[in-house]
Design a protein that fits this description.
This is Diamine N-acetyltransferase. The chain is α+β, with helices and mostly antiparallel strands. It is about 30% helix and about 35% strand. The protein has a domain of about 120 residues: Aminopeptidase. It has six helices and seven strands; from the N terminus they run E-H-H-H-H-E-E-E-H-E-H-E-E. The protein is globular, with a radius of gyration of 16 Å.
Length: about 180
């Protein structure tokens, strides 16, 4: 029997209090702020409080953040999120981050995204998923389009980063198009 959030090489799990330092490092990495629309650092106190409440049901919190772990270790290498969860319209946003560049382009993101797409459509009964991606983030665009996400719009000059406006591309995956 195949478990929903376990793949061949990785598994997705709920965040734990022990993930404090990993989440703290992710949330305070200014390079990552560009993709997360963050502009200020987070304290350990705020992250600890967030982790305490991270166990809320997705129907209450309207989001779900999971740690991405390689098989054989409980330590996270990345995070994958469902956000703007809208059960009335059966849709949600999806985002993924692999923290260490050494773990990128190794199939981890592909396997994690596949697991979360299956979970969203099968277990949450969603009809569609969307992703907002910087127009210059070729790796993320390739990752999502490989799963059938289609570009449905461009938000011109959407994000102001390092003194320049950048476009953000909206991608969508509808369940019955798989």
């Amino acid at each position: 029997m195949k478990l929903t959030l376990k793949g061949e090489n990785i598994f997705l799990r709920a965040l734990e209090p022990e993930d404090l330092e990993f989440v703290y490092a992710v949330e305070n990495d200014e390079f990552i702020w560009e993709v997360s629309n963050t502009q200020t650092p987070y304290s350990r106190f705020l992250i600890r409080d967030y982790l305490k409440n991270a166990q809320q049901d997705i129907y209450e919190a309207k989001q779900l953040r999971l740690a991405i772990c390689k098989k054989g270790t409980f330590l996270p290498v990345g995070l994958i999120d469902i956000f703007e969860f809208d059960p009335r319209n059966n849709r949600a946003g999806i985002g993924i981050l692999i923290k260490n560049p050494d773990n990128r382009n190794a199939g981890i993101g592909t396997e994690a995204l596949e697991l979360l797409i299956q979970y969203a459509f099968k277990n949450l009964n969603l009809h569609q998923l969307f992703a907002n991606i910087d127009s210059q983030n070729e790796a993320s665009i390739r990752l999502f389009t490989n799963f059938g996400f289609e570009q449905i719009g461009i938000k011109k000059d959407w994000n102001f980063i390092n003194g320049k406006y950048k476009d953000e591309v909206l991608f969508q995956l509808i369940k019955n198009q798989l």
